[in-house]
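Please, why this fold?
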Amino acid sequence: MFQFGMQSMHDRVVAIAAQQWSDPARHAITTNPGGQKNLSVGSEKLYPDIIGWKRDLGREVALWIAEVETTDSIASEDAWNQWKKYSNLKIPFYLIVPKGYLRYAKTLTTMANIYVSGIYEYQL
């Protein structure tokens, strides 16, 4: 579980990443910060932190998803279980991890057989 300070940092990173990855000509972006459930993906109704999507035949179609982790959350079994579910969606899945955790995230995803399209680092 996030501490208040970690949740605040997590939500800041979600907002910054969503803004940086915004490309209105190609897709819309919806975020699910702090446990909000603004837009889901998959039949299980999963709520990744960031969803790039487009409208197709009157419904939202996810093009890619991203999940932000903090130093507290990256080592949690809950995070790994989420990653596995996101990886199984068969759309590009990106991880955003704290600076210095890239190798750790790569090791975790490889050991757990979780496919990610990319892993990016952040520093606040």
Remarks:
- The chain has a mean pLDDT of 92.
